[in-house]
Amino acid sequence: MSGPGGSGFVAALRAMMRHDLDVAMVSEVRDAETMRLILTTAAVGHLVLTALHAPDGAEAIHRLLAVGGVDRSILAGNLLGVLTQRLVRLSCPECRRPERIRTTDVKALGLSGREAARRAVYNRGCAKCRHTGFRGRTAVGELLVVTPTVRRSIETGAIPEALRASLPTGFKPLRDELLQRVWSGEVSPREAAMVVS
Ligand SMILES: [Zn+2]
Asked: Which domain holds residue 75?
């Protein structure tokens, strides 16, 4: 089997789909043929999981459509959701010190008003963290569920900006999840800024 994009990959995928699996995992969607195949599989009731590189869910949907191969309504009708994940480094608890958030981080995180004036932890590095300032990693994420409103945005091609604007009130963007970790002292503003940018 060649890598994604090669005809050998699609042929192997097609053979796999014929085995009538309940769940199929496709490493990534890079070409129209793979896109068509996974959506045809999803349309008949199989759960298909795949991954791609994108900054958030709205942009991921935009990129899926840019791959081509399917109509917007087919994607809208068969996509259940997009989970965006980032691995972030946790601040070392031994050497973190609260201080005013540095201007570059305020800018990168898009903070304003009271939030911009808040204190958060920065690390100096110590023997415990081998002078890196980090001890371990954690995953932060956002889950974009395709609700009827989101579906309509995909169908009308109103992505990614209008789709972001139409997200339900309960939706928690990746940036908010990151900021929560910043305010709790688990993640430094510098690390959060690097993740969002
Ligand atoms: Zn340390």
From this structure: 52-196
